[in-house]
């Protein structure tokens, strides 16, 4: 079963087809239990779709999802994958697994409901990984859009010994510090610091212990994390590197989120400009691309009409989940997304770029 990635969340947020169906469900029991739950939720989705389209059109939209539910192979998942989501529109169906156990929910509206994926975004903020072996080093930027290679530097010593042969690496362990000359380490450190555009993002080293130690002895990057991932980078894919490094980044971003909350409180207390509060004002600022940092509770649905900006205490016909709309707009404008302060957990607010 495919795991949800940052890049896929970004793509889901960009879609705005109406009607679109989002189904969230826990992965409990065996395949037959999952299928029974999924079919029940699809029936609910069909009933909700009929508020917008005819019965036949609803059946046509959901047909690929029904087919997916009856395909046992699509629901094979790992033990650590506790939840799944189906995103359905006229172009087809996408099914993903994710670690968090998600309660059942069905949403039909303009675009997909990505607010339940908020924890994935907050807990997996932007970070850099540096994979180091005695042959090469690769720097990746990892964020909601996926992994992007920024630097690859080759250690020339790994391919030429005193006799000029090219099999030196096969005679050494990947973590042998003798394979890391000071000149190479210095060049690598300079290349890494130059390539890191976001100096507020953490850098996590990937490699065998001696390889990481060699780089740490030279590195001057301020946010080099004290913990790295001890694995031979040549033995794993980048997707696995991201998965192993993410918990380290999460610990860092717990501090980063608090710092953003404190900045907002300071600006608000001193009547500094560039802050807005309230769903209507925040949505307008998001529409104009002004929001730098959004503070929102993804579990609190706020129902309303985006065009008239009317907000209702209970969902009315034609309403959208404005919480979901705010998260989607924030993703599309590359704004940061954090939880509100514990002092005012229900407040929707934002820090503006200008």
How would you explain this protein's 3D organization?
There is one protein chain. The protein is 35% helix and 21% strand. The chain is built from nine helices and 15 strands. The chain has helices spanning 6-14, 31-49, 55-69, 118-123, 182-195, 209-216, 238-269, 279-287, 322-332, and strands spanning 20-26, 83-89, 92-98, 105-109, 127-132, 136-143, 146-154, 203-206, 275-277, 291-295, 303-305, 310-312, 320-321, 336-338, 349-352. Helix 2 packs antiparallel against helix 3 (55-69) and helix 8 packs parallel to helix 9 (322-332). The radius of gyration is 24 Å and the shape is globular.
Which features characterize this protein?
354 residues; 35% helix; alpha+beta; 21% strand; four-stranded antiparallel beta sheet; four-stranded mixed beta sheet; 3 domains; Translation, Eukaryotic Peptide Chain Release Factor Subunit 1, Chain A; single chain
- Rg calc: 24 Å
CATH architecture classification of the largest domain? 2-Layer Sandwich
Number of separate helices: 9
**Largest beta sheet, briefly?**
4 strands, antiparallel
Order of helices and strands: HEHHEEEHEEEHEHHEHEEEEHEE
Q: Mean pLDDT, as a whole number?
A: 86
Helix/sheet category:
alpha+beta
Strand content: 15-25%
* CATH fold group of the largest domain: Nucleotidyltransferase, domain 5
Low-confidence stretches at least 5 residues in length (pLDDT < 50)? 161-177
Query: Strands of the biggest beta sheet: in what spatial order?
Result: 3-2-1-4
* Share of residues in helices: 25-40%
CATH domain class name of the largest domain: Alpha Beta
Number of domains: 3
Terminal Cα separation, in Å? Answer: 42 Å
